[in-house]
């Protein structure tokens, strides 16, 4: 550690919490949190539907992994950086409204598919729509709620996503049991269309705080080189990407695990697993945001230490989920694992902006999403499916249990990169 660093940390302990947040900013955060709700609900809706889709269309676990992962992630990752550059140059509000409408309609269209190819193309469409959501939303939150309150704002945004994941599992399970998986996709998809109108009609485009250089004059390559030249950001991006590999693989396959191994119905898994995800996730991410507002002013490295503790500590808990002898014990442990992992998620995403200038924020977020989408959304569910198919001849229905158990090791790997990022944080962090 450099000799001047302790003084910097000590002085940060008395840093102001920033200006008061206006009522308009709180409304914008509420709308953006609703965007996050539908973003995660539509992204993860297939998780509870994998078993009925497999039964009707005769698909393998590897194909299901491709549908829930790579079909979505390929275009989500590919278009993320171009759409983020668009968000850095033009109206983020208009871009967000178009993205919400696109992914909502494509989620509904998934219910029309009659083959693996049709499902694959519909999921590609969902990925195209969602590619512009998070970078634009994070950039807006950074301007609506600057300074130490940014971590709280992004944690609230993440809580909306966890509520969407939970609500989506519950709603989709109920609808699929009563009306079938196709009707469930129609209902969930079309429910998001009115939100696009609310965004376009009620949100204003805020001034970009501290906008020290126009993004329109900087090539994307130059922005990426500047961002990747900071080791703390490189390790942070790797940590989030490896963590996403584990969490997306787990989230997409846990409902199928409870159905196959513990014999729960769609309604039961939607209700119990969805509630565990929602309660644990929302409480965890809000606790993380609350801790961040108090600990980061004392030492900015807490925005990396908190995720390191959360991701690394959740690994043995998730492993225990797959070894528990009863479904209700497993769901109880899942709640605790989700709580701990989520407590670091919003803080880690907020930390990205600490290493990016205001006119590069959306680009920095999209860079993270690009890698985390390829590793997490793309490879995570697919490799779990491949491992399950490979283990099936020896383990039968138990193969999914052990495929998921192996994947929890990636959470420890992610925790290591958060710690490596913290080692360079004070040197690379922007004022």
Describe the protein.
The protein has 431 residues and is mainly α. The chain has one domain: Growth Hormone, Chain: A. It is 80% helix and 0% strand. It is built from 19 helices and no strands. Helix 2 runs antiparallel to helix 11, helix 9 packs antiparallel against helix 16 and helix 15 runs antiparallel to helix 18. The radius of gyration is 21 Å and the shape is globular. The N terminus is likely disordered.
Question: Which series of helices and strands comes N to C?
Answer: HHHHHHHHHHHHHHHHHHH
The H-level CATH homologous superfamily, spelled out, is: MFS general substrate transporter like domains
Class of secondary structure makeup? mainly alpha
Compute the number of strand runs.
0
Shape: globular
Q: What CATH architecture label applies? A: Up-down Bundle
Query: Number of helical segments?
Result: 19
In helices, the fraction of residues equals over 70%
The biggest sheet amounts to:
none
Mean pLDDT: 82
Give start-end ranges of low-pLDDT stretches: 1-18, 211-216
CATH topology type: Growth Hormone, Chain: A
CATH C-level name: Mainly Alpha
> Termini, distance in Å?
18 Å
Blueprint (SSEs and pairs):
Blueprint: H1 5-12, H2 23-44, H3 50-57, H4 61-68, H5 70-89, H6 92-110, H7 116-130, H8 133-144, H9 149-179, H10 181-190, H11 193-202, H12 220-228, H13 231-262, H14 266-295, H15 302-323, H16 327-351, H17 361-395, H18 399-407, H19 409-428
Helix pairs in contact: 2-6, 2-8, 2-9, 2-11, 4-7, 4-17, 5-7, 5-17, 6-7, 6-8, 6-10, 6-11, 8-17, 9-10, 9-14, 9-16, 13-14, 13-16, 13-17, 13-18, 13-19, 14-16, 15-16, 15-18, 15-19, 17-18
């Amino acid at each position: 550690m450099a000799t001047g660093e302790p003084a910097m940390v000590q002085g940060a302990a008395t840093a102001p919490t920033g200006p008061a947040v206006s009522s308009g900013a709180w409304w914008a955060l509420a709308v953006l949190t609703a965007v996050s709700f539908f973003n995660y609900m539509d992204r993860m809706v297939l998780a509870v539907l994998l078993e009925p889709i497999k039964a009707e269309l005769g698909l393998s676990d590897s194909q299901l992994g491709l549908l829930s992962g790579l079909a979505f992630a390929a275009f989500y990752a590919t278009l993320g950086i171009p759409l983020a550059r668009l968000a850095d140059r033009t109206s983020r509000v208009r871009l967000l409204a178009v993205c919400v409408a696109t992914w909502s309609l494509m989620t509904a269209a998934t219910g029309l598919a009659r083959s693996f190819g049709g499902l694959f193309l519909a999921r590609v469409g969902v990925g195209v729509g969602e590619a512009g959501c998070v970078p634009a939303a994070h950039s807006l939150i950074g301007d609506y709620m600057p300074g130490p309150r940014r971590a709280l704002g992004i944690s609230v945004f993440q809580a909306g996503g966890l509520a969407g994941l939970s609500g989506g599992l519950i709603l989709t399970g109920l609808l699929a049991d009563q009306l079938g998986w196709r009707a469930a996709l129609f209902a969930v998809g079309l429910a998001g269309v009115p939100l696009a109108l609310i965004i376009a009609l009620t949100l204003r485009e805020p001034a970009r705080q501290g906008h020290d250089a126009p993004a329109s004059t900087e090539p994307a390559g130059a922005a990426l080189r500047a961002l990747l030249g900071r080791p703390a950001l490189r390790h942070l991006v790797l940590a989030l990407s490896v963590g996403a590999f584990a969490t997306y693989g787990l989230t997409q396959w846990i409902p199928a695990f409870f159905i196959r191994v513990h014999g729960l119905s769609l309604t039961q898994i939607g209700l119990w697993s969805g509630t565990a995800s929602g309660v644990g996730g929302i409480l965890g991410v809000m606790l993380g945001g609350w801790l961040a507002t108090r600990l980061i002013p004392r030492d900015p490295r807490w925005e990396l230490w908190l995720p390191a503790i959360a991701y690394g500590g959740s690994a043995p808990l998730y492993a225990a989920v797959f070894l528990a002898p009863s479904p209700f014990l497993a769901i109880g442990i899942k709640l605790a694992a989700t709580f701990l992992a989520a407590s670091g998620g919003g803080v880690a995403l907020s930390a990205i902006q600490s290493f990016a200038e205001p006119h590069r924020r959306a680009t920095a977020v999209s860079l993270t999403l690009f890698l985390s989408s390829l590793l997490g959304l793309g490879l995570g569910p697919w490799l779990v499916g491949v491992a399950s198919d490979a283990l099936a001849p020896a383990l039968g229905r138990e193969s999914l249990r052990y495929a998921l158990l192996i994947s929890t090791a990636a959470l420890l790997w992610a925790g290591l990169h958060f710690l490596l990022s913290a080692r360079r944080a004070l040197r690379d962090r922007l004022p």
